[in-house]
């Protein structure tokens, strides 16, 4: 029965290099999932049908990662992380176990690096970005490698390779992703710190508030603005983050807190009912997380403040002072180090061609530098004690094609900005760092008008199309960012 079908499948077999499973030694590919429909069972195992060919359905016990709750890798054999369980790959945005590399019962030396000993409490003092190696996210490295595989221009490939030398923040944008990424990356950073003897800083984005992204659609979250989801935010999300951070105490950590949320509380309560519905959850969520995470000595937090063309106007900045001062004191005794600006946005650091006038809709802060200078003064006068900033420069190196600075989705003309670094501007002691919070190449939102999370901005003229869903890889955007990098690669 099997042999009669085999001839039709020679080409498919040759083309496909899938991960090892029991059927491969018989000359058949593995089915893409262990839950594939069973068509036939024999002494070898369970057979499914895919692409007109028999395939072996991977046995649950044949892949060591399944009992741990992770699927087996089906198309990759590149390990981005290895621990006491085995070698891990990444597929479809999730970890997967690479078959045949389970270290169970073997090679005891694996445990040395992969279960690093947690040392004594690390305590931030001064600028949390200063004096550390920045952690390189292995998942992003894998995304860049996959992007390089689609390129043929050697000059572009050389630029893309450089991207692997720079650090990006790790987005904990769902409960599941938090469970997948947080501890794994803390552990990997700790292993590196332990090996090199140099502190390794990891930056995470906390991003799962109930009623998230209340004024837009593209990044709507999994939790709704209701009491039961707000309870889940606390117990299944913040409490777990707290538990992990309380475990890994010997390494520096920075948290970027809930992009766009408080800026929406400053400007969008009156005009957007969804933001009014979210208000109490945003405020309560912040109070809760600042209380819990703001007391950890090795953790420094920055609250998101939108960007220059959101809160830059005089009346918005004044209101912002009140909102942020209130939020920070509601989280006492937790502490907040400062504020993150321009997260996932395109506003240039300096743009001398712009000044307050009709072109900027009378915004006195038409670039990030002027915005942060003004916010520093306003937050100080609002009574906020710790006022420091970081600016996301992952995509603000080049003026985009947008004709209105409020455009935020997949802007054409994008270019990578300043590289991540501590204290980038002399004389601006309150600017802790330039850092890449939004990984270049991950989409802002889909341009598919029929998608549930389609947002009109992603269909505007200067939004690059076709664009995939927020967070998915967007090759064209990535390539343009590389070409327009400033400073250039
Ligand atoms: C997995 O094991 C195979 C065979 O021992 C080896 O060739 C391969 O390099 C290993 N892969 C990883 C990612 O460790
Ligand atoms: C390759 O990319 C470089 C810029 O990185 C560009 O100048 C050149 O025209 C490209 N070559 C081709 C053949 O597209
Ligand atoms: C809150 O929203 C969730 C969906 O995320 C829903 O399952 C739940 O029933 C809602 N709870 C209330 C109290 O409305
Ligand atoms: C640099 C550093 O912290 N090294 C430590 C790594 O962990 C081992 C124990 O597994 C310690 O002995 C090292 O001092
Ligand atoms: C680079 C790119 O995709 N640009 C597109 C942005 O959207 C406009 C309008 O839809 C297109 O004309 C561009 O080609």
From TrEMBL:
Write down the top EC class of this protein: hydrolase
Q: GO terms for molecular function, please?
A: hydrolase activity, hydrolyzing O-glycosyl compounds
Signal sequence coordinates: 1-19
Binding positions (substrate): 171, 173, 307, 310, 345, 408, 438, 442
Q: Does the keyword Repeat apply?
A: yes
Q: Which InterPro entries match?
A: Beta_cellobiohydrolase, Beta_cellobiohydrolase_sf, CBM10/Dockerin_dom, Dockerin_dom_fun_sf, Glyco_hydro_6_CS
Question: EC annotation?
Answer: 3.2.1.-
Q: Which domain of life is it from?
A: Eukaryota
Q: Give the keywords, sorted.
A: Carbohydrate metabolism, Cellulose degradation, Disulfide bond, Glycosidase, Hydrolase, Polysaccharide degradation, Repeat, Signal
PANTHER family per record? 1,4-BETA-D-GLUCAN CELLOBIOHYDROLASE C-RELATED, PTHR34876
**What's this protein's name?**
Glucanase
Whose protein is this, by species? Piromyces finnis
């Amino acid at each position: 029965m099997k042999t009669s079908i085999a001839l039709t499948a020679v080409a498919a077999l040759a083309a496909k290099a899938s991960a090892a499973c029991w059927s491969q030694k018989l000359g058949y590919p593995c089915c893409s999932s262990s839950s594939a429909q069973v068509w036939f069972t024999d002494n070898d195992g369970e057979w499914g049908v895919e692409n007109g060919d028999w395939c072996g359905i991977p046995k649950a016990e044949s892949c060591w990662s399944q009992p741990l709750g992770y699927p087996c890798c089906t198309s990759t054999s590149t390990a981005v992380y290895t621990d006491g369980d085995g070698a891990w790959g990444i597929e479809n945005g999730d970890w997967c176990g690479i078959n045949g590399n389970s270290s169970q019962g073997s090679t005891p030396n694996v445990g040395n690096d992969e279960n690093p000993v947690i040392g004594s409490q690390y305590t931030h003092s001064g600028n949390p970005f200063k004096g550390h190696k920045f952690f390189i996210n292995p998942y992003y490295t894998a995304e860049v490698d996959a992007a390089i595989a689609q390129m043929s221009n050697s000059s572009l490939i050389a630029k893309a390779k450089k991207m692997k030398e720079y650090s990006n923040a790790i987005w904990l944008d769902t409960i599941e992703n938090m469970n997948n990424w947080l501890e794994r990356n803390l552990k990997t950073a700790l292993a590196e710190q332990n090996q090199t003897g140099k502190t390794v800083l990891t930056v995470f984005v906390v991003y799962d508030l109930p009623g998230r992204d209340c004024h837009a659609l593209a990044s709507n979250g999994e939790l709704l603005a209701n009491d039961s989801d707000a309870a889940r935010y606390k117990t299944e999300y913040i409490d777990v983050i707290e538990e992990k951070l309380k475990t890994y105490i010997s390494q520096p950590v920075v948290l970027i807190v809930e992009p766009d949320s408080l800026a929406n509380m400053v400007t969008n309560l009156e005009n957007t009912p969804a933001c009014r519905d979210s208000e109490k959850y945003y405020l309560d969520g912040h109070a809760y997380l600042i209380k819990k995470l703001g007391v950890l000595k090795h953790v420094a937090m920055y609250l998101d403040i939108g960007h220059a063309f959101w809160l830059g106007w005089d009346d918005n900045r004044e209101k912002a002072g009140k909102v942020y001062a209130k939020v920070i004191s509601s989280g006492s005794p937790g502490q907040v180090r400062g504020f993150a600006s321009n997260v996932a946005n395109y506003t240039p650091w300096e743009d001398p061609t712009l000044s307050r006038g009709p072109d900027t809709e009378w915004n006195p802060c038409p670039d990030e530098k002027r915005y942060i200078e003004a916010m520093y003064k306003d937050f100080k006068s609002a009574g906020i004690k710790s006022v420091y900033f970081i600016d996301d420069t992952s995509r603000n190196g080049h003026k985009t094609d947008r004709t209105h600075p409020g455009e935020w989705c997949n802007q054409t003309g994008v270019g990578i900005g300043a590289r991540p670094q501590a204290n980038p501007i002399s004389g601006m002691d309150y600017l802790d760092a330039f850092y890449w919070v939004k990984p270049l190449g991950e989409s802002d939102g889909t341009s598919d008008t029929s998608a549930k999370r389609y947002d009109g901005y992603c269909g505007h003229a200067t939004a690059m199309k076709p664009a995939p869903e927020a967070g998915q890889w967007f090759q064209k955007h990535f390539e343009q960012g590389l070409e327009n990098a400033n400073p250039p690669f």
